[in-house]
Amino acid sequence: MIILRLAIPSPLRRLFDYLPPSDEDNADLEPGIRLLVPFGKRDVIGILVEVSDTSDFAINKLKRAKKRLDTTPPLPQHLFKLARWAASYYQHPEGDALQQAIPVLLRKGHACEHQHETLWRSKEGATISQLKANALRQRELLTLILEHPQGISEDAIRAEGGNTQSLSALEKKSLVESFHREHKLAIENILHEAPLTLNPEQQTTLAQINKHEGFSVSLIEGITGSGKTEIYLQAIEKALRAGKQALILVPEIGLTPQTVSRFKKRFGVPIAILHSNLTDRQRLDAWLQAREGIARIVIGTRSAIFTPLKTPGIIIIDEEHDPSFKQQDGFRYSARDLSVMRARSENTPVILGSATPSLETLHNAVEGRYQWLKMTQRAGNSAPPAFKLLDIRQEKLSEGLSNQLVTAIGQHLNAGTQVLVFLNRRGYSPTLSCNDCGWIADCTRCDAHMTLHKSPPHLHCHHCDKQQGIPQRCPECNSDQIQPVGVGTERSEQALQNLFPDFPVIRVDRDSTQRKDAMHDIMNQVNTGAPCILVGTQMLAKGHHFPKVTLVAIINADSGLFSADFRGMERTAQLILQVAGRAGRADHPGTVMMQTYHADHPILQTLVEHGYSAFAQEELHNRRIAQLPPYTHYALLRAETTTQYRAESFLGALRQQLEDDMLLPHGVHWIGPFPSPMEKRAGMHRAQLMIYAENRKALHQLLANLCWYLEQNKEARKVRWSIDVDPADTF
Ligand code: ADP
Ligand code: ZN
Ligand code: ZN
Questions:
Q1: Could you tell me if 292 and 163 lie in one domain?
Q2: Are residue 209 and residue 286 in the same domain, yes or no?
Q3: Domain for residue 445, yes or no?
Q4: 83 φ, ψ to 5°?
Q5: For a tag on the chain, would you pick the N or C end, based on fewer CB atoms within 10 A?
Q6: Residue minimizing CA distance to atom 16 of ligand 1
Q7: Is 153 within the bounds of a domain?
């Protein structure tokens, strides 16, 4: 008896038993292959997890799988295991997790192979004169094809106005033929350009990384500009020379043409780039090229962690502290944490690099689990900036700017250099309010204000995306005295333009960079080196270097100091240093001015006077005392309901039930339930229960119990709930 146990894309945390498609052809039923199976009223793609000879269900009740879609599994066994492990660690239904580990087209049942595009070329000796003078369409088409000796695709032919009839006519006359371009393993030269000569600090760092054979984890804690990327490039070169491949993960916001071009300039090998603008087809092709060993370097964001490599050689996580490595919904995995698991199973090194490492990673380094490599000097033609706190308690601000700051901006511009103004709020102002009655433009679906935008003019909720027009009069008291409150990037841009009419002000945020080439154009303008003001959000903090910027102005350094999230301080420090790191060259060292109402805050002072390492050490100490991660392990059970209080009472009852049944392992603690910091979002009422333990095993034991309860619980079906293990934020 052969029973197939399949993971099915369904919210149920269990596998489903099926009979094989036929009783004859059952060779090599390897875990990981896809099968088309009936499920309820639909056919779905199931992934084989194990083959058994027994079932808990009556054999005659089992359905037969309809069709086998793979002869060999799309994912190699160790990655298949990694995805399964991640499903269980992050408490996510296995069917969905395994689907997310493969490209979209494979989830939809497409064949796991390249789609070879059909191209057309002329046959030898074909000329226009072989066609009748009045066969105009055919003559035009042949001319077009003759212009493309390397071949032209059918799509391109159609785009140029050619049609299939003329094409087959030409083919019948033996003037043209179709062919497929093969993906070749063509490596001419590993290097396009010579590597830089490493400075002593870089030499030591690279030597430490290369010291290990096989699996090792290294943290490079190196200030911005210390030459981390150069180390990555040379570590990758070593892997390539050994005939192996490299996988590089970068933050979502960091996968810029600038990053990519640095790799392309250095290496002559094929590089696969998994960016978000790829079509599903292009993504599958890139994925296959990685799997077949054609692409020697793979660069991608979070989801690239599951990309198979034929000859894995090294994994690099750039800006490892970046929150985008943790998926925030559905399958809530951390690609950074999985990269360490993956490297172990592939027996390769993994490098985690950052100027501002996460406290989790630093803790691992402190404890000796990761090799800790520090780089404190700038490598190239640049100097680290000097920090200055601007105490604005007694100041009258104009459009968010203090006099001191405006003066400084003017001085830098007049000296012929550039200024970067950082403000982490897009839009014109965070809200709109009535001077007469105090009405505030709130989102009806969220506990949040609507942001006022002026270009184009509208009110926008940044939490649920609701948009509406700007009222002319107060909806409460009909007064016309309604005014924007607070400053966003659009308003700051306008204010700076009024203050400095002789200099261009360039805004960089999600709104101003929507057009495809917008960022490219902005960088071109900045790279001319002419004095200007860049004003923008954290989009300015990553991936770009602005050598002509000598002043970085941080409008509000306090935003995370009193956050409800215990990571608020860490995130603020990281953001400040990342923005600060954009500036300065050896001949123009940068200054960072930070406006604050808490200039004597000990944490800000440590950061400014002693740098990130000192800050992180203090913050780790605070976390230890407060029993917070990385000293304890956290999970968050979130619940959402359409009516108020339901989510909270549901979580309360659940907690009670588990306590009554004495299913709380020793050493596991609860906090809550309480309403989420933003209780209402997108029309849903939200509550959460925080669970923590010193011991990971105990935590996971409880989470497993919890899932079991939730799946049995009838109430739970009316509630949208989710579990977040190692949450990146506690909102
Ligand atoms: P990071 O990734 O740490 O921010 P980069 O690798 O981007 O640092 O290096 C910063 C600048 O210094 C780049 O312009 C780079 O070309 C230059 N650089 C790095 N290493 C060297 C070196 N050994 N010699 C000369 N310039 C270097
Ligand atoms: Zn009013
Ligand atoms: Zn909203």
A1: no
A2: yes
A3: no
A4: -65, -40
A5: N
A6: 380
A7: yes
Closest CA to 557 of 361, 383, 387: 387
Q: CA–CA separation, 340 vs 516, rounded Å?
A: 35
Q: Angle 359-366/602-626 helices, nearest 10 degrees? A: 70
316 C-alpha vs ligand 1 centroid, how far in Å? Answer: 17
From the CB of 205, is ligand 1 less than 6 Å away?
no
Residue 435 within a domain: no
Print the domain residue range for 165.
118-180
Q: Which of 58, 79, 107 is the last residue of a domain?
A: 107
The two structure tokens encoding residue 551: 């002043």
Grouping H, G, I as helix, E, B as strand and the rest as coil, residue 209 is helix
Tokens of 346: 């592939």
CATH of the domain at 340: 3.40.50.300
Last residue of a domain, one of 614, 646, 677: 614
- What are the distances in angstroms from CA 677 to CA 173, 424, 478? 73, 20, 32
Task: Say yes or no: CB of residue 201 within 6 Å of ligand 1.
Answer: no
In this structure, are 561 and 681 located in the same domain? no
Contacts of 113 (CB under 8 A, 6+ apart): 288
Q: Whose CA is nearest to atom 9 of ligand 1?
A: 227
- 380 pocket-lining for ligand 1 (C-beta < 6 Å): yes
Tell me if 456 sits within 8 A of 392, measured CB to CB: no
Indicate whether 601 and 669 sit together in one domain: no
Contact residues for 148 (Cβ-Cβ < 8 A; gap 6+): 121, 156
Residue 625 belongs to a domain: no
Q: Please state whether beta strands 42-52 and 371-375 pair in parallel, antiparallel, or not at all (unpaired).
A: unpaired
89, 210, 283, 616 from 319: Cα distances, Å: 24, 21, 24, 16
547 lines ligand 1 (CB under 6 A): no
Mean pLDDT by groups of 10 residues along the chain of 731 residues: 93 91 81 95 96 91 94 96 97 95 96 83 90 90 89 84 88 90 67 94 97 95 93 97 96 81 93 88 93 95 97 97 94 98 98 97 97 92 84 91 96 96 94 95 96 95 95 95 95 97 95 86 91 93 82 89 85 91 77 94 91 95 94 95 92 90 85 92 95 94 89 87 91 63
Q: Exposure pattern of 77-93 as b/e (b: 16+ CB <10 Å)?
A: ebbbebbbebbebbbbb
Q: Which of 193, 204, 220, 230 to mutate to test the pocket of ligand 1 (most atoms within 8 A of CB)?
A: 230
Instruction: Check residue 236 and give its pLDDT.
Output: 98
Q: How many domains does the chain have?
A: 5
469 DSSP 8-state letter: P
Tell whether ligand 1 has an atom less than 6 A from the beta carbon of residue 76. Answer: no
Cα–Cα distances in Å, from 513 out to 260, 442, 548, 549, 665? 19, 27, 21, 20, 50
357 with 494, same domain? no
Structure tokens at 687: 């509550």
Q: Which ligand gives the minimal distance to the CA of 680?
A: 3
267 vs 238: CA distance, rounded Å: 12
What are the residues whose beta carbons fall under 8 Å from the beta carbon of 418, sequence distance 6 or more? 412, 526, 529, 531, 532, 533, 534, 546, 548, 549, 550
Q: How many Cα atoms occupy the beta-carbon half-sphere of 413 within 13 Å? A: 22
Report which ligand 1 atom has the smallest distance to the Cα of 375: 3
Residue with CA at minimum distance from ligand 1 atom 25: 380
425: left (phi over 0), alpha (psi -120 to 50) or beta: beta
Query: Cα(450)–Cα(488) distance, rounded to whole angstroms?
Result: 12
Is 546 found in the same domain as 511? yes
β-bridge partners, 671: 690
Q: Can you say how many angstroms the Cα of residue 675 is from the centroid of all Cα atoms in its chain? A: 28
Ligand 1 pocket member 225 (CB < 6 A) = yes
